[in-house]
Amino acid sequence: MLRGLCAALRGHLIVLCAVVGCGAWIAPGHAQPFPSRPITLIVPFAAGGPTDTLARILSERIAAELRTTVVVENVAGASGSIAGARVARATPDGTTITIGHWGTHVLNGAIFKLPYDVVADFEPVAMIAMGTQLIVGRKSLEANSLKEMIAWLKGNPGKATAGTAGAGTGAHVAGVFFKDKTGTDFQFVPYRGAGPAMIDLVAGQIDIMFDQASNSLPHVKSGAIKAFAVTSPTRLASAPDVPTVDEAGLPGLYISYWHGIWAPKNTPKDIVTKLNAAIVAVLAEPAVKHRFAELGQEIPLPAQQTPAALAAFQKAETEKWWPIVKAADIKPE
């Protein structure tokens, strides 16, 4: 009888172990902790540009926070819309995210016929930086102030060249508004990003740019290019010698170039929360704050770094800029 009881117990234990074993084998597929794989951070422009610079500053620190690898991948072209389509179609598991800005996640929706929606097809993760533009020119340009630059443009109608990161980008839109406000005329030269455009400006191959401060400041400080004005009502702490557009004689030409991080639509809320927490922690680091400040970038307050805050800000910017862009009839070149 004892022998039979032991045999029966052994049978139950075998069945129990089999069930537990199967459960242990199945569970990881359903509840693997995030991140279980490397994260790809898509940059919608060429390497070396302002958006790429911010992405690379953040990526290493985000990787440390999440204890994973973050790979920065540059997917340039069509003013950032090729990258936008790539991320919009990506599996919404948090392993593909993108950095974007006023151009990629507001202006593109008003200018291009896109295979995705700049608002509806993404999950906002965090606002990371608020920046501005500089109006800059090649070192040899025959002007040393914004008024002189405008006079030079009027004296050479249709001949001057302005580099942009592509049709419909912030640099292009800013240039269109500058033309309208000053009565000047010049040609736009599109590049695959602000980085390549800046290379040609430094080399004297193009004349001017309406460029993100983070891209221009190092070259302004080195004396490689001239800065005529900053497109904000206050001077940059990192470039106090550069006048505002109001001071330089072109009042009201304000353009804010903000950056954020997005994931594909339907990325689980807990993953978005974890990504946001890592980014917020990185933005609080003194070294990151210092580096951003050097590039003319202001880190938003913690209350503005939430996914909800980025969603609300993007919505407000869309409502502000879409009517302006459409009224100006800005088209892809």
Notes on the protein architecture:
- It is a single chain.
- This protein has 333 residues and is α/β, with parallel strands linked by helices.
- The chain contains 12 helices and 9 strands.
- The longest helix is centred in the N-terminal third of the chain and has 30 residues, at 2-31.
Q: How is this fold's topology laid out?
A:
Blueprint: H1 2-31, E1 39-43, H2 50-66, E2 70-74, H3 81-89, E3 96-101, H4 102-111, E4 122-138, H5 146-155, E5 161-164, H6 170-182, E6 187-190, H7 194-202, E7 208-212, H8 213-222, E8 225-230, H9 245-248, E9 256-264, H10 269-283, H11 286-294, H12 307-327
Parallel strand pairs: 1-2, 1-3, 5-6, 5-7
Antiparallel strand pairs: 3-9, 4-7, 4-8, 4-9
Helix pairs in contact: 2-10, 4-12
SS content category: alpha/beta
- Unreliable runs, pLDDT <50, ≥5 residues? 1-30
Task: Kindly provide the radius of gyration, computed on alpha-carbon positions and rounded to a whole number of angstroms.
Answer: 25 Å
Fraction of residues in helix: 40-55%
Please outline the major beta sheet: 9 strands, mixed
In a few lines, what is going on in this structure?
It comes from Bradyrhizobium shewense. This is Tripartite-type tricarboxylate transporter, receptor component TctC. This protein has 333 residues and is α/β, with parallel strands linked by helices.
Keywords:
disordered N terminus; 2 domains; 12 helices; Bug_dom1; receptor; alpha/beta; 9 strands; 9-stranded mixed β-sheet; D-Maltodextrin-Binding Protein, domain 2; 333 residues
